[in-house]
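Sequence decides. Our protein:
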Amino acid sequence: VRRTMAGEHIFPDAPPSVEIGTAMSAEFTKGEMKVLRCLVRGLSYNEIAKELGIEPSTVKYHVINMLQKTNLENKLQLAIAATEAKLVVELADT
């Protein structure tokens, strides 16, 4: 606490970058990361759009961009890769 109060940064400014397919997670935009978190939860494009307050076409756009960056074939592979790399983890119910 003293170190933090003195202005020292104990925690990094950004999460560590991990490899997802052929891309690094740092290459994903904030919007892509929001969509990816929802994909890992198993939500459909329409459910993601409703939750994030965006159009389903925007969800699809983000997924396509992430697939191109990672060279993965589909959203299931993307969700599995993100989970295995511990980029997106599901929190236990409290």
